[in-house]
Design goal:
The chain has 390 residues and is an alpha/beta fold. 61% of the residues lie in helices and 8% in strands. The longest helix has 29 residues. It binds NADP nicotinamide-adenine-dinucleotide phosphate (NAP) and 2-acetamido-2-deoxy-beta-D-glucopyranose (2 copies).
């Protein structure tokens, strides 16, 4: 404390520190939940400032104080949420899974929700009708059907005449059948592109005039498989990668209009996306029918029939609690400064980091270790056995 009492500069610093601490404490009432956490971040600069004035002297103290102030305001800036008010949001693919949960979640928070559904008479739509508020409107919306996209646009733009449309969440998506890219039929590649990429592009292009008017938000639910290469996801991953790249470009282009765009790359969550045993059988059959005889022989029938067991292992890696994804979308919709990319779910961030910051061979090695339980194609099994015999 000698440094402090000894110098007038020390007292000045102390005064400024206290003043900043108090004003920061009183500023911005619209902070997200975690009050205690926020309080700590507000007080931190003042406390550290004081401490370092005492130990390092006035100059050092001021430097530390300023640095901590910057860090803490950057941290808190990321948490400031805009009020929900009467903001209207359109979500595609609300029949099941993430879109369905998101429609309920946002409705509950007070948003005016437009829930696009693939089947307006289906059980998912019916449940939304029964459990959600009067604010929620259901839209018949197959994102690959131009007529339906146009009709949805007319209905939404009529209903939001006064308030505008704040957000569009491109959620509708299909996974297709996870199998080696060589085996997947062309129809699977086309279908994934059609729904996951062209569907989202068409929808975004249609609704962007409304978003530009409200300076709102565009949120794309892409996937971890769209950011990093994952075995068996050639068709799905490529369609999601196209969506992610489009998103990145749009983020740059739309910033001049005040529209913020965010992409969400979830890892595995338990939803309806994996389909049903009946569907897997149908997809396996289609895949085998389209294969050439020699390819079929090389991979072997048991390998091909075993492909669908991937789905049986999936629940182990997938989280049933969707709240990380819901929170990420909420942040993307309401944060004053939303992130460009969110990675909710187990392993999503770590895998991305390994892909981005390590050599490719290391990433491939890491992935092969993760998938070590996979079965081996028949032709490789026989050659393995032969080399053992030698
Ligand atoms: N679950 C995960 O682990 C995970 C991981 C990464 C990314 N994602 C992404 O998150 C999004 C939501 O997936 P989810 O897991 O919630 O799967 P989901 O339960 O299958 O939800 C997707 C929804 O989109 C609908 N849909 C399919 N084709 C459509 C079309 N042409 N037009 C409009 N809607 C259509 C589906 O309707 P039907 O059910 O009637 O087919 C379904 O309601 C997808 O974009 C997916 O790629 C999911
Ligand atoms: C597109 O939607 C319209 C209107 O709902 C419907 O009549 C038409 O059959 C749909 N087209 C396709 C290809 O599904
Ligand atoms: C989402 O994708 C659409 C179409 O691909 C694109 O227009 C939009 O900018 C993307 N937005 C985000 C936030 O990724």
């Amino acid at each position: 404390m000698d440094a402090l009492s000894g110098s007038p500069l020390g007292w000045l610093c102390l005064g400024i520190t206290a003043l900043f601490g108090v004003t920061m404490l009183c500023m911005d009432k619209r902070i997200l939940a975690e009050r205690a956490n926020v309080l700590v971040w507000r007080l931190l600069p003042a406390l550290l400032g004081l401490l370092s004035v005492a130990t390092l002297g006035a100059g050092g103290g001021l430097v530390v104080f300023c640095a901590v102030c910057l860090v803490s305001s950057a941290y808190l800036g990321g948490r400031v949420l805009l009020p929900v008010g009467d903001k209207a949001v359109l979500i595609t693919g609300s029949d099941t899974g993430i879109g369905h949960a998101l429609a309920k979640y946002l409705d509950n928070l007070g948003f005016v929700v437009f829930a696009g559904v693939l089947n307006k008479d289906g059980p998912g739509a019916e449940e939304l009708r029964q459990t959600c508020s009067q604010r929620l409107s259901l839209l018949q919306l197959d994102v690959t059907n131009v007529t339906q996209v146009k009709e949805a646009y007319l209905e939404v733009s009529e209903k939001v005449q006064n308030t505008g449309l704040w957000g569009v969440v491109n959620n509708a998506g299909i996974l297709g059948f996870p199998a080696d890219g060589e085996l997947l039929p062309m129809s699977m590649y086309r279908r994934c592109m059609e729904v996951n990429f062209f569907g989202a592009v068409e929808l975004s292009k249609t609704f962007l005039p409304l978003l530009r008017k409200s300076q709102g938000r565009l949120v794309n639910i892409s996937s971890m498989a769209g950011g990093i290469p994952l075995p068996r996801f050639a068709a799905y991953g490529a369609s999601k990668a196209a969506l992610s790249m489009f998103s990145g470009v749009m983020r740059q282009e739309l910033s001049k209009w005040g529209v913020k765009v965010a992409a969400i790359h979830p890892s595995g969550f338990r939803t309806g996306i994996e389909g049903t045993p009946d569907l897997w059988d149908k997809q396996t059959k289609e895949l085998m029918e389209k294969l050439q005889a020699d390819t079929k022989q090389d991979y072997g029938e048991d390998y091909l029939l075993g492909l669908k067991s991937y789905f049986l292992h999936m629940p182990m890696h997938c989280d049933a609690d969707l709240s990380p994804v819901l929170n990420a979308v909420l942040h993307a919709l309401l944060a004053k400064r939303p992130h460009g990319l969110y990675t909710p779910g187990k392993g999503a961030y770590m895998s991305l980091c390994i892909f981005c910051y390590f050599p490719l061979w290391f990433y491939d090695f890491f992935m092969s270790k993760m998938a070590s339980t996979e079965s081996v194609p028949s032709a490789l099994r026989t050659s393995e056995a032969e080399s053992k015999d030698l």
